[in-house]
């Protein structure tokens, strides 16, 4: 039980910081658009990456020297592009000013979610390398992994559905513009950090 709690605590702390993926989940939650599918996609993606890390996949990133650089450059390029889109949305005032308004098709939401998840090198560093390395210190690695996976499910569904509590604030068009600017800044900041690593 303590091993499961240790996995939960570490997993939760790693995904707690606002990043590109979390900002997207928050926005989808505020829009009440494909929330379940987006949260499930994020949580299942994390579960796959955690399982890979605990199973020893983290060694691959160390064994293939150019892999980390390629992941960083590709991830930075995607974040710069997506950040530019959110700045453009903030400038225009965005089409989705009402909290209940749809944010596009399910396919588009899931593709964006998958890109923000799988093209982000920090996801691999956190879930595969770091969690994998910490899990190796425990005899009961399975329960450690289950704890970390549970943390992902709890976090993403709490973020996606908890965002609705902020809906009255985001009934104002200016709040959406501010959120888009903040999301754009976060994405560009992460992109710069990736390029300077």
UniProtKB/TrEMBL annotation:
Domain of life: Bacteria
Keywords, sorted A to Z: Cell membrane, Membrane, Transmembrane, Transmembrane helix
Entry keyword annotation includes 4Fe-4S: no
Membrane topology recorded in Swiss-Prot or TrEMBL: Multi-pass membrane protein
Pfam family, one: LysE
Name of the protein: Amino acid transporter
Listed transmembrane segments: 35-57, 69-89, 142-163, 175-196
InterPro entries: LeuE-type
Keyword Transmembrane: yes
GO molecular function: amino acid transmembrane transporter activity
Localization terms from the record: Cell membrane
Major location category of this protein: membrane
GO cellular component: a single term: plasma membrane
């Amino acid at each position: 039980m303590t091993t499961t709690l240790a996995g939960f605590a570490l997993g939760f702390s790693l995904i707690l910081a606002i990043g590109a993926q979390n900002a997207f989940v928050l926005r989808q939650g505020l829009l009440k658009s494909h929330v379940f599918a987006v949260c499930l996609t994020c949580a299942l993606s994390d579960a796959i990456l955690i399982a890979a890390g605990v199973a020893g996949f983290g060694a691959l990133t160390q064994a293939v020297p150019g892999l980390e650089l390629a992941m960083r450059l590709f991830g930075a390029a995607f974040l710069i592009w997506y950040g530019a889109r959110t700045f453009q949305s903030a400038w225009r005032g965005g089409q989705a000013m009402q909290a209940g308004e749809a944010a596009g098709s399910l396919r588009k939401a899931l593709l964006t979610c998958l890109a923000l998840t799988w093209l982000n090198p920090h996801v691999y560093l956190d879930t595969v390398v770091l969690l994998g390395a910490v899990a190796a210190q425990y005899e009961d690695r399975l329960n450690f992994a289950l704890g970390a996976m549970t943390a992902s499910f709890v976090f993403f569904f709490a973020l996606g559905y908890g965002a609705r509590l902020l809906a009255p604030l985001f009934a104002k068009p200016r709040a959406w513009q501010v959120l888009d600017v903040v999301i754009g800044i976060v994405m560009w900041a992460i992109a710069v950090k990736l390029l300077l690593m």
